[in-house]
Design a protein that fits this description.
Layout lengths: L6 E5 L5 E6 L8 E4 L10 H12 L2 E7 L2 E6 L8 H6 L20
Antiparallel strand pairs: 1-2, 2-5, 3-4, 4-5
């Protein structure tokens, strides 16, 4: 359920910074800046994305504005896996996950 996000990685002129352009608006017209996972409180898509990126490790900061995500990598960390995390943000049921059916459902 859900749809994958189309992600295009664009290198920056600054080492360790990668910009990702996506086909979804994640913040409206506001900027969201996350310098650690503790900044990523809330239920907005940008908050959830930041939490997932920090859980991955190797991330110094995340900035999200509209459909652009800028990631600063920590200590020359490779960007492997970041595109997949962004692409799967709105996927609710992944391979191997079976949705739970409430026991009160009519039979």
């Amino acid at each position: 359920m859900g749809q994958p996000i189309t992600v295009i990685a664009k290198p920056s002129t600054r080492p360790g910074i990668i910009r990702y352009e996506v086909n979804r608006n994640l913040t409206g017209t506001g900027h969201q800046i996350y310098r650690s996972e503790s900044d990523a409180v809330g239920a907005m898509p940008a908050d959830e994305l930041a939490r997932r990126l920090f859980d991955r490790g190797g991330i110094e900061s995340v900035h999200v504005y509209n459909n652009v995500i800028t990631v600063q990598l920590a200590d020359s960390s490779p960007p492997s896996g970041i595109e997949e995390i962004i692409r799967d943000l709105f996927l609710y049921y992944r391979d191997g996950v079976v949705p739970e059916v409430p026991s009160t459902a009519a039979s």
